[in-house]
Amino acid sequence: MKLKIAVLPGDGIGPEITQQAVKVLKSVADRFDHDFHFEEALVGATAIDQLNNPLPDATLDLCKEADAVLFGAIGHPKYDNDPSAKIRPEQGLLKLRKELGLFANVRPITTYSKLIEQSPLRPERINGADMVIYRELTGGIYFGEKFISEDGNSATDICTYSVSEIERVAHLAFQAAQKRRKKLTLVDKANVLETSRLWRKTVTELAKDYPDVKLEFLFVDNAAMQMIVNPKQFDVILTENMFGDILSDEASVIAGSIGLLASASIGLKAALFEPIHGSYPEAAGKGIANPVAAILSAAMLLDHFNLTEEANAIRSAVNLSIELNVCTQDINKDNHYSTEKIGDFLDGLISDNDNISINNENLNLGQMTII
Ligand SMILES: NC(=O)C1=CN([C@@H]2O[C@H](COP(=O)(O)OP(=O)(O)OC[C@H]3O[C@@H](n4cnc5c(N)ncnc54)[C@H](O)[C@@H]3O)[C@@H](O)[C@H]2O)C=CC1
Ligand SMILES: CC(C)CC(=O)C(=O)O
Ligand SMILES: [Mg+2]
């Protein structure tokens, strides 16, 4: 298959993790005889530094004409620490999501047997947890009007949702539930928020089209607790933009690290693939960031084009690397590998996958022992 992939590395650890994801995609292209063409563009703080614009026109044009976008992360402390900055890196990502119509953000959460014992959560509670969060991505409070009073003493963020915005992401969530364990949990705050009541009403109505899916409702405060005490109850979670943002970072504790959670942001025409984490500025350039979230996002990109065997080759390589403890320091504190070495290792596994047997004792990432 021929694919043009726009690559937006962004800020902080964005470039180093994206580089590993591109490396792995090239290795998939070689092994499965595909023609993937990559083109890079600026976004976020890096784009502000160079062009005073967090989403330059050239970047948006490239994303619109590409088959898919591979996104790293944006964000820089100089903006995080300056609340009065008018031009901000996050505006680049939000505008990109809006312009490409990426209304659904799909965030799968699974566990890895090797990581369950070292989790801060009780092993018996998380073992077997497997859920996917459908987060609405182009509406709600992140996109509502914002203003600050002239005297600077009050500020407002408006949260708006329309029935059609709720329906289009809800349809995708119901369809996902039909292919999974047939349970959908709508997370909202319908006891307080008018928008949440509209979500409940709309989703309840839509559920009639999906009689095989069991629909449940949970207030977001309770959901945040249930995520930790009984995550196995969840199959598909459907929720609005901000709640999904927050709950998915929390859910990453179940997987073992936020550096493992990938996502697909999809719309009717475009699709963008991005780790759920941010630019982790403290780690930038140190080679300690986990590239797996970016690499699994690349696997979701392949899924999107029905390249299932190819996506599974990436996931198998990731599973094996975790099984062998070939991990960055967020997972393996004592004997960790660098961001680049993880990319090299997965690249090697994918390229030589026909005949892999790994001698764990002699595992040497400098000269990888793959026989
Ligand atoms: N999609 C995006 O581009 C996002 C951007 N941001 C931006 O990122 C910047 C930093 O925000 P934070 O709140 O610190 O969130 P963050 O996700 O960048 O980092 C939070 C913590 O998660 C861990 N972490 C994140 N990515 C990791 C990785 N790949 N490997 C290992 N550990 C990892 C680290 O312990 C880190 O301190 C801000 O400017 C924020 O606006 C935040 C979230 C998403
Ligand atoms: C700009 C933020 C909304 C990014 C973020 O935290 C996310 O999408 O997870
Ligand atoms: Mg987030």
Automatic annotation (TrEMBL):
EC number(s) recorded for this UniProt protein: 1.1.1.85
One Pfam family cited in the UniProt record for this chain: Iso_dh
Superkingdom: Bacteria
SMART domains according to UniProt: Iso_dh
Main location: cytoplasm
Free-text remark on how the cofactor is bound: Binds 1 Mg(2+) or Mn(2+) ion per subunit.
Binding sites annotated in the UniProt record for substrate: R97, R107, R135, D221
Similarity annotation: Belongs to the isocitrate and isopropylmalate dehydrogenases family. LeuB type 1 subfamily.
Subunit record text: Homodimer.
The protein, known as: 3-isopropylmalate dehydrogenase
